[in-house]
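Notes continue from the previous slide.

Worked example: a multi-chain complex. Inputs as given:
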Amino acid sequence: MITDTTPILRVDNISKCFGETCILKGVSLSLRKGEIKVLIGPSGGGKSTLLQCINCLVRPDAGEIHLGEERIDLASKADLCRLRQQVGMIFQDFNLFDHLSAQDNITIALRKVKKLGKREAAERARLELEQVGLGDKAELYPAQLSGGQKQRVAIARALAMDPKALLLDEPTSALDPELIGEVIAVIRALAAKGMTMIMATHQISLISTLADEILFMENGVIVEQGSPAQLLTSGNPSKSQGFCDRLNDLADGGC
Amino acid sequence: MPTSLTVIADSLPYLLLGTINTAGIVVAAMLLGLLLGVCIAVGLVYGGRPVRLLLSCYVWFFRGVPVLVLLFLFYFGLFTYLGLPFNAFFSVALVLGMTTGAYQANIFKGAILSLPRGQFKAASALGMSELQTIRSIILPQALRVSIPAWSNEYSIILKDSALAFVIGAPEIMARTQFVASRTYQHLPLYITAGLLYFFLTWLGVAALRALERRLRIPGYTHGIQ
Amino acid sequence: MLTLSPFYQELLAALNQGLLMSLALIIPSALGGVLIGISAGALRVFGDRWVRLLGDGYAALFRGTPLVVQLFVLYFGLPNVGVYLSPYAAAVTGFMLCSGAYQSEYVRGALLSIKRGQYFGAQALGFTPWQTVRCIIVPQAVRRAIHGCGNEIVYLIKYSSLAYVVTCMELTGEGKTIATEYFRFTEVFAIIGLYYLALVSLAIFFLKKIEQRLYIPGFGHQ
């Protein structure tokens, strides 16, 4: 039996170096069901690499990853495939398959990876597209969709795999300002349904209202963590508050 | 194989003279092609319907018929039939020039069409005539962006010029074949010929890249890494 | 009833004969060229350093020298080292190797144009490497390469006329024989030209049809 306190995803002491430069220096975190953790911090601090290490798109040099009670063998391709099927990933630049329509972007993974039948996969894809408000765009190709629509298709694609957790790597930062809202609405709806998520973002509204816990990353380590209530009060000397203040200044157009 | 090396050493000056002839044929053909190509491209973009139709036929014909067949058709056929006293060297340059003219027309046409429409309007707004606009606004831009494709065309025409031997123009292949038929050192000689072509390809492409850099204007970065 | 003069009867009979030989040269060369192009192109992108170097060298060699020289080496040169090829074998070998070198360039370009994100996207969904290649990379690469590869086949049709220089009797060779015999070069080569124009136009028509069938927004040409 998995009790409520057993984390569904646990990462221990992950580190990753590219040559001389070390991007991650022993990062640990764990995620309980329904929990939302938000990664913030300066660019180049290792947020994106951490997310990519968690589902092994970038192979960590050291450290352990546990999915439920199972330890993932990082050298086993079968283990990696299983991990990735259960941990969805949303990219900054969407990574939709450019040669497939919105619907086929979803069905291809269902059919090839989950081995669903054609009809079943199509029905599921339709359902997921409607969930993100794109039921009428199923036949369009990525080249015919706006950035916000692409990102919503990408989210629908990840959700169709029934992931236990979702990793979001700056899901709104490649979007034009007027398109950010539609993606944020979808992410909020996910949170309301109890989806477990780790999200790197610079979007101030997501940080303060969605996070159960904020992780501030700098130079490859988590230097500060806590709930928004603990870290984000005006005048708080925390790094997180300082970071959010600067984001606010930028958003207001002030200097 | 000492014999083969002596043969190559002995025939090298003779082959190098052939290399100069090859270079002459290619340069003449490329320049003729440039002239034809620019005129045809302008006609294809700005001309009336009959002009466009006629020029399209020209392009279709020269792009669809093999160079070898064109050489036979013009040198042994039309030029003789019309009583034109063209020698092999001149005929090859002419035929290759007309062929590359068709290809270059397509390159320049693409380049002209890729320019923003505002360029033409802005020139007209300044009171330039159509011809002035094409000459001093459109072509300088279109030719610049065409250099990489033009350099590609050069290497194609250089290789096609190796067919000139079938009508006896005294270029690399004809001379190599001549030496080979007397010495029976076919393999080393044809490899030497290949190296000479390789060298000419490299030389021309390097020269055109230098030209591209010299003519470079900020904002026109096509083809430069 | 339209009856042709004996000259034209003989000419057309010879040219039709030559046309069959031309097709027998073009079809295997095109197929072989595409196969070599795909293999060499893939190796030039995904191979290790030495394999890439080898592939690049192959492509540079065959793209940097005239096809005639390659054919002469194969047909007249190889006997110097004891290898004798028939005219047909020499022509098809030369066409395949040369066409493959050009094809590999388009395949390489197509593979390189696929963004890293496409691999990431597939991996993140749990695709195996083989599934990624089959379902994501190949369909995209095919669409990016098809225009260039098609053009290359059109070139191959025209350059099949070079089989004549290694005494393989195809369209050009058959025509040349008759033209020399009757000394009527203009008519003969004009008609040969029409044969090639028909072949090339037909090929362009079908290649365009294939391109249209495979068209997907974002992958079109022009």
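Summary box: Chain C touches chain B through 39 residues (CB under 8 Å). The mean pLDDT of chain C is 91.
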